[in-house]
Design brief:
Strand content: 5-15%
Bound molecules: adenosine-5'-triphosphate, magnesium ion
Mean pLDDT: 89
């Protein structure tokens, strides 16, 4: 980022005095005598600040100001004007000038205003950079949703975002559950509050309690300081409990109480503390099945799953793959500082027919690797991992009839095993008569 200053004034004495002064105070500075020359210099190199007289023969300072704000929006403009024509300074401020200097110039004022502008510029740069970084990490607005099923997910997210009811996000690993949780927060009226994420699978068991509910100073050995816990720390924001199926049973009881009473009892405290938060939970194990298996409390399940967002696995929405692939190509190419390579039909078809057990995260990893391996302008099948590059051996049975018989045999065997060899039950499960089952078994050579 340049800190260079350009002084534009047709009055030679004023111009050279100003240039000399700014140079002496440690700035990199140039002077030109007209707006036209100024535009040439601006096209050639970056300037942080332009200081220009408003009244000049030819183009004039106001026209210059308009060109600078339109063509060099990063460059800040300071206008010089006589006290008698203060209105023109005000007009200039309206057209994008940052500030003005009055003639006769006070060098103190020049220093003060120039320094302030350079500070503002530096701050603006920092803010813009941070905003870019944050945006890249939590790019929820740019969430890819070309498929009808993801369109429905986004629609549901949009509707649910404003509600304080708990949301359960369910989906296989890597389907975008955290992205949805963040979208729910970002689109909510409390988006300016905190989004606090806790991964229950990654937490050491004996810390879960303190992380969630907090503790008082001295509540246990080593608790030199008190801790708020996520529900208190949220202060109106969102608490995201990732992998909620992994929550230990005794913690489930406590969470239920927090959801019912909207207050927490930190460890070692004698009175509960009111809390205000929106709960979003995620799981890659269907939570209902965890309830049925006795691993997750049913009463808590009902409190958590008031609204449910189900993320379909990537293999069920191949329509999303081209846009996702392009997004990841651009992202990983930028990270690797190269131009994004392109994907042709053949490779895209491979991507769209693969089963993606790791879902969107796996796609991102495959593309990252391909960008790294790809030498040319196009990604080749060789740049894909062997599962995808089509070098797997062909199936043992190629003939269609033989393949169907093979499938029938394996399927009947599986169902038989599932029913502990009970043929009556197996026939019922398969939806055929017992006699038919026997006939099939004989034909397929099953004992
Ligand atoms: N629809 C989408 N558009 C763009 N990027 C996506 C989309 N879905 C997922 N991603 C990206 O894929 C990666 C995995 O997503 P995320 O972490 O949200 O998945 P997850 O379901 O929480 O996975 P896990 O179960 O492993 O925790 C992230 O980098 C995320 O940005
Ligand atoms: Mg996740």
């Amino acid at each position: 980022m340049s800190d260079r200053i350009l002084v534009v004034d047709d009055e030679a004495v004023l111009r050279s005095n100003l240039v000399r002064f700014l140079d002496r105070t440690g700035h990199e500075v140039e002077g030109v005598a007209s707006a036209e020359e100024a535009l040439q210099r601006l096209d050639a190199t970056d300037f942080a600040v332009v200081i220009t007289d408003l009244k000049m023969p030819g183009m004039g300072g106001e026209a210059l100001l308009r060109r600078v704000t339109a063509e060099h929006p990063e460059t800040l403009v300071l206008v010089i004007t006589a006290f008698a024509s203060l209105e023109s300074a005000i007009e200039a401020l309206r057209h994008g000038a940052q500030d003005y200097l009055l003639k006769p110039l006070s060098l103190d004022e020049v220093t003060r205003k120039v320094d302030r502008l350079l500070d503002v510029r530096e701050l603006e740069h920092r803010v813009a950079r941070l905003r870019r970084e944050v945006h890249q990490r939590f790019d929820t607005e740019g969430m890819v949703a070309d498929s009808p099923s993801m369109q429905r997910v986004l629609e549901l997210v949009r509707k649910a975002a404003g509600s304080r009811s708990s949301v359960l996000v369910e989906g296989e690993s890597g389907t975008g559950k955290e992205l949805v949780a963040r979208a729910l927060h970002d689109q909510s009226p409390w988006a300016d509050r905190d989004f606090i994420a806790v991964n229950l699978a990654a937490q050491p068991r004996d810390l879960v309690d303190a992380t969630l509910f907090g503790h008082e100073k001295g509540a246990f050995t080593g608790a030199a300081r008190g801790r708020d816990g996520v529900f208190r720390a949220a202060r109106g924001g969102t608490v995201f409990l990732d992998e909620i199926s992994e929550m230990p049973p005794e913690v489930q009881v406590k969470l239920l109480r927090v959801l019912e009473n909207r207050e927490v009892l930190p460890l070692g405290a004698d009175r509960p503390v009111p809390v205000d938060f929106r709960l979003v939970a995620a799981t890659n194990k269907p939570l209902r099945a965890e309830v049925d298996a006795g691993r997750f409390r049913e009463d808590l399940f009902f409190r958590v799953e008031i609204l449910k967002v189900e993320l379909p696995p990537l293999r069920e929405r191949p329509d999303d793959i081209p846009a996702l692939a392009r997004r990841f190509l651009a992202r990983h190419a930028e990270k690797q500082r190269r131009n994004p390579p392109r994907i042709g039909h053949k490779v895209m078809r491979r991507l769209q027919t693969y089963a993606w057990p790791g879902n969107v995260r796996e796609l991102s990893n495959v593309i990252e690797r391909a960008v790294l391996l790809c030498d040319g302008e196009w990604i080749e099948t060789d740049d894909l991992p062997s599962d995808l590059s089509g070098t797997q051996p062909p199936p043992d049975v190629l003939d269609l009839k033989a393949a169907m018989a093979e499938f029938e045999r394996r399927h009947i065997e599986r169902v038989l095993a599932h029913c502990d060899g009970d043929k009556n039950l197996t026939a019922e499960r398969l939806g055929v008569h017992l006699a038919t089952l026997y006939r099939h078994m004989e034909r397929l050579g099953l004992g």
